[in-house]
Each structure stands twice: as structure tokens, then as C-alpha cells.
Amino acid sequence: MTPTALPAPPPDQTPETRDFWGATAAGRLVLAYCDACGTVIWYPKTYCPECGGLSVTWKDASGRGTVYSFSVVHRAPGVFGDAVPFVIAYVELDEGPRVLTNIVGCDPDQVGIGQAVRVVFCDTGEGSALYRFEPSVPPLAGEA
Q1: Which of 101, 105, 85 is nearest to 93 (CA)?
Q2: Most CB atoms within 10 A, among 5, 38, 62, 135?
Q3: Which domain holds residue 35?
């Protein structure tokens, strides 16, 4: 069963996350890197949780990763209830951090741990986009 499109509610933006969400609106996934120790910082913030450094540089991410863990949601409240079933997952980015996201563009039964995925952006209609991931190589008809 192919799920319906997921809703794309606009994210709450703070001064710390404004650069991140601005990049998603432009179709770019960016990560903050600590200028002092080089740590890749996730969730977006303007300081380093490793060394306490207060200077970060935003760099484009590859947009590639692998499914680390996932769950198929069959019941959900509100507008997400109309989109079941859908997949919520942790994707381990090629750059290292694991991000909580959705897997889209395939049947939920076709998602698997270790699967290669790439970022896609879902416009919220309010100057931002949500990052989601789809299989890098869609399976052939009949494959799971």
C-alpha cells in the first residue's frame, strides 16, 4: 500500500535554527561544524556541545545517508492520521550525525535498516521546507 503524502507543517524557527531552515527552503541540507574542534553539530545550534565553542560554520551536507532505525506508523493523531501508514526513521548521514526524519517515496514495506537514502525537501508554503529522505535507488517492481 502506497501512503498518501505527509503533511508538511512549518517548523518552529529560533535564532539558532534560522540558517538551517533557510537553507532547506533553498533545497540545501546544511550542518553546523565547530570552528574550534571540528565537531559536526546536530541538532542545529550556534555553539558546540563538545567543546563549548561559540563559533560554528554552516556547510552543505551531501544529503546522503543510511537508515539506522525505523518504524512504520499505522495510527497517528490529527492531520498525520490521514497519511498512515508512514515511516519515521533515524537516518545516519554520511557526515556522521543521526537525524530523525521520514522516509518517503516508497511503500513502507520497502524500507530496511542499512538502506541508502537521499534527502528530499517538502515545501511548507511558509518560507521553509522539511527534510525527508527517499531511497537512493528505488526498488524494481515486485522487490521488497
Answers
A1: 101
A2: 135
A3: 18-135
The Cα 70–Cα 74 span in angstroms is 13
Can you list the positions of beta strands (E) in 29-115? Answer: 30-34, 40-41, 56-60, 64-73, 86-93, 98-103
pLDDT of residue 10: 93
Is the pTM here over 0.85, yes or no?
yes
| The C-alpha cell that represents 46 in the structure block | 550556534
The cell for 99 is 537525524
- Residue 1 forms part of a structural domain: no
What band does 2 get if pLDDT is binned at 50, 70 and 90? very low
Residue 91 CA to residue 40 CA, distance in Å, equals 15
Q: Across residues 14-29, what is the average pLDDT?
A: 94
Question: Is residue 141 domain-resident?
Answer: no
Bridge partners, 27 (sequence order): none
Predicted local confidence at residue 1, as pLDDT = 39
Question: One-letter amino acid identity for 75?
Answer: R
- Structural contact between residues 64 and 29, judged by C-beta atoms closer than 8 angstroms: no
User: For residue 13, is it within any domain?
Assistant: no
